[in-house]
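Technical note accompanying the year-one report. For the benefit of new consortium partners, we illustrate the data format agreed upon in the data management plan: each record pairs a sequence with a structure-token string. No post-processing was applied to the example shown here.
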Amino acid sequence: MLNSKELFARRAQRTRSALRRKSTGMVRLSVFRSSKNIYAQLIDDDNGVTLVAASSLEKELRDALKTGADKAAAEAVGKLVAERALEKGLNKVVFDRGGYRFHGRVKALADSAREAGLKF
């Protein structure tokens, strides 16, 4: 019997392998969700480099948000990562939800990134 961490890692690996088959060299928007904050980064898997990152821990967001662990924080992080990506000329990405279900904070981040101009 696998424990919850092993099941999570298995789901994340399944998601990433499916993205690798379909992405054909596109940048990956990866989401990490902790109990207190949310993080997003654009990763170039070909070179193994993080191109853009944003989180609810950043000073400009920390002052404006009530907490880093709600949908409002996720929306702000999604908008911020999309703005930074567009500044670097990245507008097409694949969304990597990791082992998380696509609802709640993860969905809010994805929706706000789409509204800000990212295509996935």
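Partners are asked to follow this layout when depositing records. The two ends are 35 Å apart (CA to CA).
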